[in-house]
Amino acid sequence: MRRPAPLPASPEEPTPGDIAEGSPSAPRRRLQRFGDAGKREAGRRAAGAPDAEVADAGHPEADAGLGTHAGAEPDGYSVTAVIAEEDQDAARSAMRSSEVWRAARARRKALRAEIRRFTQRSRRRRLVVWGSTGALVALVLGSVIAAYSPLFAVEKITVAGATSIDPATVQQSLADQIGAPLALVDAGRVNSALAEFPIIESYALEVRPPRELLVRIVERTPVGAIRDGDVYSVVDAAGVVLSSSRERPAGAPELDITGGLGSTAFHSAGLVMRSLPADLRATVTQVRATSGDDVTLSLADGKTVVWGSEKDSSRKAAVLVRLIAAAPQSSTFDVSSPTVPVVG
User: Fold this and answer.
1) 286-339: per-residue pLDDT in tens?
2) How far apart are CA 336 and CA 145, in angstroms?
3) What are the C-alpha distances in Å from 310 to residues 194, 201, 275, 290?
4) What is the DSSP letter of 185?
5) Main-chain phi, psi angles of 304, to 5 degrees
6) Per-residue model confidence as pLDDT tens digits over 225-251
7) Which helix (H) or strand (E) covers residue 11, if one does?
8) How far from the centroid of its chain's Cα atoms is residue 170's Cα?
């Protein structure tokens, strides 16, 4: 059986001979293998370049017809050269991008360094402020916690300044504060307990960590005993009764005051007795006053001191001490005018 004859090839389709080595279609196939370079070369062909310009280096007839060396184009270009140039362009582009990135990075680094340099003082100031604040807060919290802790509870009460009263009695009156934290000592209850002692004029509380409470007492100064009927009352300069008895206490001068404890005469007499030195006040046996301007003192050795009012009492006391030392045999000393005292 005979095989049918092949159909004639269309003018548009290349024949096997057309695509043989050395044919004009062969370079087009090779250009396709070169990717973008081949497409660019195809563009050149479309622009009018002859097919022989990309002739294969292995086709001797093409080489001979073009009059050029094998594998080279008439204008000195080749597909390999095109690819190499594109690789160089890509490398140069990559290098430029790397340089731009490095420059931007260096600029950002320099900018951060400048910002740190210009804000260094403010950052240091903030660190100092926050550090000081934190230390203060820690100190306050630590002090508060320690003050309210049972480790700082009252275990010992010390009384200072008590001469006329027994310190143990004062300690006993404050026994309810034992065991209380030093920061929680009840000042109101302490005041109520010490108010039971008329001799106490004022007091102050001192905390001595870890467990001691110190009570400093200032006692009232007795100025004498004033008689009210059959009872003698020992009073201080403010008229506070410190004690009472049917007999005049030893060492307490008798107060002969017109008008009683609330009078102007008593006020002047009390201030005069407070201004005397302790050793001289101990020798006074009687204080007489009918008004605020005629206070008179009687001493144990029979001497009489005309004092006058309570004005300049400190100066009068200093003058009286010098006069007694200078004239011990005299019996009357008038210091009502300290600038011109009289001795009789």
Assistant:
1) 999 999 999 999 999 999 999 999 999 999 999 999 999 999 999 999 999 999
2) 61
3) 31, 21, 9, 13
4) -
5) -120, 135
6) 999 888 999 999 999 999 899 998 888
7) none
8) 41
